[in-house]
Specification:
Layout: E1 2-5, H1 13-20, H2 24-36, E2 41-45, H3 53-65, E3 72-75, H4 79-89, E4 94-99, H5 102-114, E5 118-122, H6 133-149, E6 157-160, H7 172-186, E7 191-192, H8 206-220, E8 224-227, H9 232-244, H10 252-259
Parallel strand pairs: 1-2, 1-8, 2-3, 3-4, 4-5, 5-6, 6-7
């Protein structure tokens, strides 16, 4: 499972405060802990500062780079911040995210190509969000083909079917998993990811919902997720689900996690 660590996000109150106060130690601690917990990329988001997002993005990346060379995921709605982030990101840069919306695609695809970035591809076009999963699949399929036509390798594409809360639509979780499975079948080299916590929005005990859902999703082909890697039960569920889904040969990742004490208290 390719983990995109979600914690350095300026929409979180403590992160916004750390950025405002230039609390480098707090940012560096979160970056280091996420890598140690198994994050493949560290997501970096300064979007809560629209007037000086580029400066804040550059400060975040410079601060993180003092303690780790781990790959970074650049997360912004603004092209200028995306370009500034990708320019500093270093090895294996990741763009979070592009979509089939005409203006966003046109603005961001040059950066994806220039920096050979991996990219979260949101199943969203100019018609907006929909609960029609056949339409979600059609947008995803078209976006994959468009990215490939623009020279993006299929294994650099991470499709996000945009998980909806089950609290407002009980069919949304299984519908999204249908899309994940469809992508796995039709586009086997393309990755499937999601902002996992969306599924539990509006519910009590949200972590429990997220932890169960990730196991279901892995069974359908999910091989990446934007999650909190410091949630030990979430990470334990991922190890178990991958072993049960035949994605962990001889269960070596699971066994290694147990030996490292990462499954303590889970039985």
């Amino acid at each position: 499972m390719l983990i995109i660590g979600e914690l350095i996000n300026s929409t979180r109150k403590q992160i916004r405060k750390a950025i405002e106060e230039k609390d480098a130690a707090a940012i560096q601690s979160l970056a280091t802990k996420q890598v140690q917990a198994g994050a493949s990329w560290i997501d970096v988001n300064a979007g809560a500062f629209p007037t000086d997002e580029v400066e804040k993005m550059q400060w975040l990346i410079g601060t993180i780079r003092k303690v780790t060379e781990a790959p970074l995921s650049i997360d912004s709605p603004r092209p200028a911040a995306v370009e500034a982030g990708l320019a500093m990101a270093g090895k294996e840069p990741f763009l979070n995210s592009i979509s089939a919306e005409a203006d966003r695609y046109k603005a961001l695809i040059p950066f994806v190509k220039k920096y050979a970035a991996r990219v979260v591809a949101l199943s969203l076009d100019d018609s907006g969000m929909t609960d029609d999963m056949k339409a979600v699949w059609a947008v995803a399929d078209g976006l994959i083909k468009r990215l490939e036509d623009d020279g993006v390798p299929p294994d650099h594409i991470f499709v996000d079917p945009l998980i909806r809360p089950v609290s407002t639509n009980g069919d949304s979780a299984m519908g999204a998993l249908w899309v994940v499975e469809k992508i796995s079948t039709i586009h086997p080299l393309v990755h499937k990811t999601c902002g996992l916590s969306n599924v539990s929005y509006g519910l009590p005990k949200r972590k429990l919902v997220n932890q169960v859902f990730v196991a279901m999703a892995i069974g359908k082909g999910l091989d990446s997720a934007i999650v909190d890697p410091l949630d030990p039960r979430m990470m334990a569920n991922i190890f178990v689900a991958e072993a049960l889904a035949g994605k962990d040969q001889f269960c070596m990742n699971y066994i290694t996690a147990e030996r490292e004490g990462r499954l303590e208290g889970m039985a």
